[in-house]
Write a structure and sequence with these properties.
single chain; mainly alpha; Arc Repressor Mutant, subunit A; Tetracycline Repressor, domain 2; 2 domains; 9 helices; elongated
Length: 209
């Protein structure tokens, strides 16, 4: 493959990513129905025909954007194939939790994704499934893995790790969404999350550990 062709491929890939990034902003702000291809092209400084060179339709952009967001979330936050290490202490568990909270609150793509999924979950079946996955199910699975590992290490009392994960992650998820609604209260809300996590872990801690 010639250098020129490689450069053209890289440029095309960069343009496709720019389209998806701008589409995420528009979809999150205006919703799927409120976003049109002409305005998206204008925001990118492209002609409408140039936009259709990269994506065949608005639905094609929507699907590709959700694919990219899911990959970003899994890579950055965690998934079944990218599970966090088991903490070696309860204090380490709290710090790990707070790092995940910090990422979830401050990563721009994740913030926009939450807004998007909340708005579109009643219209789009995949958005509904992703909302359930991102806001609850994946966190449950990740922390069920963490809690089971900590129980095996003798750090936590032996309980049902899935139920323990649900009891731990649901309030934290609710507080993160409260932070989305009231960003000016972020310091207060994150402190509440830390306090909750600390008390929860203390109650679940195996005596003497």
């Amino acid at each position: 493959m010639s250098t020129r062709i490689c450069e053209e491929c890289a440029m095309a890939k960069g343009t496709k990513q720019r389209i998806l990034d701008e589409a995420l902003i528009m979809f999150a702000q205006r919703g799927y129905e409120g976003t049109n291809m002409r305005e998206l092209a204008q925001a990118l400084g492209l002609g409408k025909s140039a936009l259709y060179k990269h994506y065949a339709s608005k639905e094609d952009i929507w699907t590709s954007m959700l694919d990219a967001l899911e990959a970003h979330y899994s890579r950055s936050f965690g998934s079944e194939d990218n599970l966090p290490p088991i903490p070696s202490s309860c204090d380490e568990l709290v710090e790990m939790s707070m790092k995940l909270v910090d990422f979830t609150i401050h990563d721009e793509k994740i913030v926009l994704t939450r807004r998007l999924l909340l708005a579109e979950q009643h219209r789009d079946e995949r958005a509904r499934a992703l909302a359930s996955e991102h806001f609850l199910k994946r966190l449950e699975r990740i922390f069920a893995h963490v809690f089971a590992g900590m129980m095996d290490k003798g750090l936590l009392k032996h309980r049902d790790p899935q139920l323990l994960a649900l009891a731990y992650t649901a309030p934290i998820s609710a507080l993160i969404m409260e932070c989305d609604r009231y960003p000016e209260k972020e310091p207060e809300i994150t402190e509440r999350i830390r306090t909750f996590a600390t008390h929860f872990v203390e109650a679940a801690r195996e005596r003497g550990r």
